[in-house]
Amino acid sequence: MPHLHDSLLIVSDLDGTLLDYHTYRWEAASGWLGIFRQKDIPLVLCSNKSAAEIIEWQKELGIIGQSFIAEDGAVIQLDARWAGSESFPRRIAGFRHEELMDLLNNLRSQYGFKFTCFADVDVNTLVEWTGLTHKQAALARLREASEAFIWRDSQEMFSAFAERIAELGLMLVQGGRFWHVMGVQGDKGQALRWLYQQYQQNEGKTYTTIGLGDGPNDAMLLDNVDYAVVVKGYSREPVILRNDNPARVYHSLHYGPQGWKEGLDYFIPSS
Fold this sequence. Notes:
Layout: E1 8-12, H1 30-39, E2 43-46, H2 51-61, E3 68-70, E4 75-77, E5 90-92, H3 97-111, E6 115-117, H4 123-130, H5 134-140, E7 146-151, H6 155-167, E8 170-174, E9 179-183, H7 188-203, E10 208-213, H8 219-222, E11 227-232, E12 249-255, H9 256-267
Parallel strand pairs: 1-2, 1-10, 2-3, 10-11, 11-12
Antiparallel strand pairs: 3-4, 4-5, 6-7, 7-9, 8-9
């Protein structure tokens, strides 16, 4: 089991995990956040949110300047201390947002697929869809290597859409509220493996990794850490892991930040 004296690296999803799914509150996690700051334990946020959104959450959580993974792995921000790194400050995997939107609009025009992207609507509409504040919704639209959308067509048409997406070298990821499309190079697992190498190279040590997530799209995150916390979530689809060994994986009884705290309490003796 990991210990606070070990070189720990914590990797956490945001919505439904560190943040309450309905209210976006996180205070139940504040005890561990304080310990991580005190012990200089990195907390890598790994989310489908945009980089602009995550930077704001880093400010609120008191972890500004740390590495993070945005847009489900398509964007990786390096630690502020690593200014000499070749990929500093940010790595983009796969297609840039402008290219993605051209491809999506072409598919819409050619096949008549019905879906609505974040880029198609104004900020007020996003506020209605998400429950975010006006500022948060504006930041959510600042995507760099992926696009979020609502599917508005039949399941049959979705299957055809998924085929066209794959032919273009793109992939679909189902988040808690929306679908996301990005290049196949941009999943959370690939992003985490690459970022872990950056930690080893820049910090000169090996880390014990603990990952926390609540949805099916977090499986690639949780499959690429030493210890995994599956926070109880609201998705109708289960979180299916390649290695669900109870010695490595803990399934929380509580939702959101309460489950986040519960999982860390289970794996790390706070004393």
